[in-house]
Amino acid sequence: MKMKKVMALIMAIMMTGSLTACGSLAQQAAEETTANASVQEQVYQVGICQLVQHEALDAATLGFTEALKEVLGDQVVIEEQNASNDQATCATIINQFVASDVDLIMANATPALQAAIAATDTIPIVATSITDYATALEISDWTGTTGMNVTGTADLAPLEEQAAMILELVPEAKKVAILYCSAEPNSKYQSDIVTGELQKLGIEVEEFTFADSNDVMLVTEAAVAAADVIYVPTDNTVASNTEMINSVAEDAGVPIIAGEEGICKGCGIATLSIDYYSIGYRAGEMAADILANGADPATMEIDFAEELTKKAMASRCEALGIAVPEGYELIEE
Q: Does the domain at residues 42-155+275-301 carry the CATH identifier 3.40.190.10?
């Protein structure tokens, strides 16, 4: 009888151990399932600060959002904000993103990038439509990466080729006016390089700058009175006021060479242009790599547009008696 009780006790202990083991396995499986579901269901918050609404920046933002959605789908929620070409508003927007603890900030144009880097050194920042990152971020020893929580894409086209286009289209030009906003450091960067290139070609150059949109007409009037040709870089204030600039230049019969296609459509005769949608799309891919794969923006090289195209506005060229050289693609009007 005692032997039977002992055997029963042993069997009970074995069954208890077995049940405990099964319970542990079941719990482990449940925890793994929960962890996997958590990873799959993670949603990233991304804030976009675009300096101002115009064709080029709009295209870059569209490319960025479409690339991010293509890679992450419903795992990303994007909030777009526009600063209406006001640097203080850029700072307000960015600070709201930081307070909301977004997972990533996209800065579209230099003032948006500068506001972002001033607000956070921890949240990843992916920028686009930046002419020169070294200038925008005040980096003296540029190596191709920022070394901080910033990466992105640039909209810089070869400035020496843009300078050469001026004489290609207007070979009799003796003096060129460069028109841009003094509040945009990347415009000054472009002006300095183009000035040097034109002076090598024996062309006299004079800068005409305005502080904001209020001065655009008066400064443009001074520029057309002083020069045979006007060059405008990739400048956001110019891009927002092309109709006004065109009315002044058209009345004076002075051609404008533009830094990008959107400005060219509004007031120029020709440009060596990049595709802003493409650089925005590439920035979106970089953002997805940071969010989904943990890529470090500090070590991600700044990316540049691969395709550059000479483009011309046939109607303005014809009105000014300028023959469009071979190799130019006509811009659809």
A: no
